Amino acid sequence: MAAITTILADDDYLVLQDLETLVDWESLGFHIAGTAPNGKAALALVRKHRPALVITDISMPVMDGFDFVETVRKDFPDTYVMLISSYADFDYAKRAIEGGIQDYILKNEITPAMMEKKLLAVKERIESGHKERRQSLHRQLGKYLEDGKELPRSIPAGRNYLFTVFCRHLPLERLKDHFSHLDEYGETLCAEAEPLVRDRFPEALLFTSGPFVIIAVPVAEIPEGTSVTALSLIFERIKALLTPVRQDITGYFCSSEKSFPELQKLFAKARPVLLYYSTFPAGAPRKLDDLADKTFVPYGKLFPYDTLSSFPSGTDGFLQALDAFLHGLAEHMDADGTFMLYHNLMLQMDDLSGHLLPVPETLYADDPRELLSHFRSCVEECRELSGSGGIENQTPAVRLAQEYIKDHYSDPALSINQIAEAALLSPSRLSVLFKKETGQTVNDYLINARISRAVYLLENTNLRIYEVAAQAGYRSAQYFSQSLLQKTGRKPLDFRKKKP
Known about the structure:
Elements: E1 4-9, H1 13-22, H2 25-28, E2 30-36, H3 39-49, E3 53-57, H4 65-75, E4 80-85, H5 90-98, E5 103-106, H6 112-147, E6 161-168, E7 172-173, H7 178-200, E8 205-209, E9 212-218, H8 228-242, E10 249-253, H9 260-279, H10 288-292, H11 316-332, H12 335-353, E11 362-363, H13 369-386, H14 396-408, H15 416-422, H16 427-438, H17 442-460, H18 465-471, H19 477-488, H20 494-497
Parallel strand pairs: 1-2, 1-3, 3-4, 4-5
Antiparallel strand pairs: 6-9, 6-10, 7-11, 8-9
């Protein structure tokens, strides 16, 4: 953290001298920005330097310590105030505490050791307070960016900033909690970026919205001026700060100064396209303004999952349908639709192949066309698993267990004991063999079979939710909805309102 800016105020010149030389302020993490002989002069210094710490006497001419502190507490509520006095009077201390003073010490008790100990404690409190205020402001700004309702009072609506937006290259994941990871990506990048950016731009504001990190640099901190070229240079400077930490970031900047309300409107329009370019960064523009000109309309079609019916032997129709569907998603820049297609196809191909396909759980793609290549590889893997090198070489017991699950998954009472009995093995022996040969537990395989069937029914029939749940092997619609949400990140109605 940067040195804590400090102002000293006392009408006794010798006391001021003693305070300045009593301890090594710089080594303790403090910087004395100025000293003042009275409250009025001290107030001018506070308004100029906006210090984090003020140490002031009580009895001073022109404006006494109490009036000075009252003004500071009103105009600069985050400033930490330490009061010193030669009057060992309880009434003074009581009035000081009632006035919001955080610390009160007597001049005749000050020693270098005591002062050093006191300053280190103050430093810890100030840094803790800064961190809490930054976190609070972080949350408020993120919420404002999403709903545009309430800008934090500490941010003047008319103040202009250079806004830059950064995001890590977002992966397409097989994991059930993919969408909860998006916030994690943003928070991690923000934590990595903050000390680097603040070291160069101390007054910069950093906050997140989902996977995106927004950096707001006050225009006053941009010495080059406010031309597009100057803003572009600042953007490149910030990106250069982050690149050694993160090689996989995509960044954008506003081509003119903007206030927070202006950014909120721009970001709301650009967000869906930002998400697309963060998932597929190839060809991403540098100016955030360019994204707001694009009208985002989700790709409203459903993928023809019936093309998987002859899988994996006859896959030409499936790959042709996939090629066309990916082209449509790319034209609409539909990142959510692309993820859901990837996730659901992987679930169903795992089920059809009888294996958890041995492909990376986290897939990065620069371009959506890479997904077609990825699924071609999956098709080949499924063919191998269904040929001499895969499923055919599984032990008969594991194949019997898989066939029994596929025939009986709609039974909500289906248990591993029943499956093991059908496979002519003990439950413990089946569990070990099944995990070894398929990469999944028996329970995971059963859940995948049920979820795959449920997704198909939701997308291709008009059955009610409780009917889908029953056919997929769930005792209740509520438990089914919870299981679907955990596995896919989506609720049942989401598969009908939007694309899979």
